[in-house]
Amino acid sequence: MRMLPLIAAALLSSAAAQEVPAEDHYAEEIARLTGEDAVQEAFAAIDAMRERSIADLIEIVETPAPPFKEEARGELVARMFEETGFGDVSVDEVGNVIARREGRSGERSVAVLAHIDTVFPEGTDVTVTREGNTFTAPGIGDNARGVVLLLELARAIEAADIETEADILLVGNVGEEGLGDLRGVKHLFREGADHPDAVLAIDGSDLSRLVTAAVGSNRYRVTYKGPGGHSWSDFGAPNPHHALGRAIAYLDEMALPVTQEGPKSSYSVGRISGGTSVNSIPFESTMEVDMRSGDPERLALVDAAFQEAMERALEVENREATQGEPLTLTVEPIGKRPAAKGDLSAPLVQHALAALRSEGIQPTPAASSTDANLPLSLGVPAVTMARGGISEGAHSAAESWTDEDTARATRAALLTLLAEAGY
């Protein structure tokens, strides 16, 4: 089996697991916050808004937000934010909806994010059906419920007239799903921007899962092109589909060893297209490839294996051709989410851990691919917490969400936010 020297060397090492430091003063801080009259008032407001939150959820879900076409849902979320009275509401150049509540000092800002886009294409039936406390529709959990949690935070903070030292930003961001490439969060953290100093992303359904590290991903569109021809008379000409097949086989040969050792990594060919008829040599063959790891070095190794596999397939297909013009290869980046290892001792992480424990939840730090990837990669404290309730079938037409113990997630997020923003 052929293997890149760099890959072979890297397989000899592995990353040590991080231990979660226990710091009692964070638990004491969260306990003090919980005992504050205003926080108890906010908790009561969260409980009282249950039916309104369900109505908001249905309205948000039934307002489509396909990839790169989030405008209608953005307008709805902006109106909903304005109705809460939480703070100033704006929509930025890429479509992020931002509600800002000024803090006493304004020296820092803490952002809570929930993406408003879905994976579902335009024209998808997003009608919500209800059976008891279970609601079914595409995108109802991921991440319409996350957006509703933002609205719950806004209403609870406003109802209790809570002030913090830092500014609070509640952001319904675009571009988290599919080929969105985190464009909403990338805009918030663009060069020269006055970006948040800490980020709490809302995504995922497991309350015990606290995302503290970023699984990075590199995504490419690979295209082999040639003159095409007739399957009989032009036989022997280089075939883009055959090159693509070789490329996938070489990718397995070169990248699989990387994924079998050390920190978890992966690769996948997600889409393939091209060709005109069964009796034609195609003039073009395209695939889209996704590769992931929570370790930047491991991700780089998978990427290196991928790049060599693509070039090797081109070389072999052209070399074995007996007629026709040679194929060309284009490898186009279509997405990049940086990998990063979070700091488990950071105050934001410790606040979130303590807040979850205060709700009787034993949290487990985890790595995932979320809106928190980018700030983590830049050294900005960031975590991702669950949206509440029970979600099943994410990214499917039969996606469902059940309203069960939902308020625990909202209370944990509120406590984390207030502790970080300085109540």
Explain this structure.
Helix content is 38%, strand content 23%. Residues 1-19 have low confidence and may be disordered. Strands 1-2-6-3-7-16 form a six-stranded mixed beta sheet. A four-stranded antiparallel beta sheet has the order 4-5-18-17, covered by helices on one side. The protein is elongated and about 85 Å long. It starts with a helix and ends with a helix. With 423 residues, it is of the alpha+beta class. Helix 2 packs across helix 10, helix 3 packs antiparallel against helix 12 (406-421) and helix 5 (71-84) packs parallel to helix 6 (140-159). Strand 17 and strand 18 form a beta hairpin. It folds into two domains: 24-215 and 339-421, Aminopeptidase (3-Layer(aba) Sandwich), CATH 3.40.630.10; 223-337, 2-Layer Sandwich (Alpha-Beta Plaits).
Descriptors:
423 residues; Aminopeptidase; Alpha-Beta Plaits; six-stranded mixed beta sheet; four-stranded antiparallel beta sheet; 18 strands; 38% helix
List the helices and strands and how they pair.
Blueprint: H1 5-10, H2 24-35, H3 37-48, H4 50-61, H5 71-84, E1 88-91, E2 97-101, E3 109-115, E4 129-131, E5 134-136, H6 140-159, E6 167-173, H7 183-188, E7 198-202, E8 209-214, E9 216-225, E10 229-230, H8 240-259, E11 265-274, E12 280-281, E13 284-293, H9 296-320, E14 328-337, H10 347-358, E15 364-368, H11 373-377, E16 382-385, E17 390-392, E18 400-402, H12 406-421
Parallel strand pairs: 3-6, 3-7, 7-16, 8-15
Antiparallel strand pairs: 1-2, 2-6, 4-5, 5-18, 9-13, 9-14, 10-12, 11-13, 17-18
Helix pairs in contact: 2-10, 2-12, 3-6, 3-12, 4-6, 5-6, 8-9, 10-12
